[in-house]
Amino acid sequence: MKIGYIIVAILLAANIYQFAHTPLPEEGEVVLVADREYFSVARQLIENANTSVRLIAFNAKYYSKYPDSKTNVLLDALAGARDRGVDVRVVVDEFDKDARNVVNMLRARGIDARLDGADVTTHAKVLVVDDYVLIGSTNWSFTSFEKNHEANVLVRSRGLAKDMERYFDSL
Known about the structure:
The chain is of the alpha/beta class. It has helices at 2-14, 37-47, 70-83, 99-108, 142-146, 158-170, and strands at 30-34, 52-57, 87-92, 112-115, 126-129, 132-136, 151-156. The relative contact order is 0.20.
């Protein structure tokens, strides 16, 4: 069994620097999305969304002094998807003092956004777009996008996407 994990890790690592030149995965495929790749992958998914987007975020920041920041670009992309008729919903953990501002800003743009509630910490970082699930360690913040080592996987699976939407609804 251990050799199986090693093979999977090697196959995923082989894709680490190729994603920008690789098409989105086919049904059932998994692609590693690490470090600085997250932003471009998330943006591509959101900008090409057809029916639904779900974001579960432990930390999502809006930087009013930096309107072109990567986080702001993704938040704007969520609003753009909503404007195209995509069903966009967001849940953010209320741990961060800025979380309420992000939720209010998204609501003002017509997005169904809410805080998770004080009785539990939502530490998940999940983006579900149509049949794609991007899940891993990346928060929607400058530090995660520009400084941290982050590891995520992008999975194309209609079944997993539906399961993650049900999980989102349960939060």
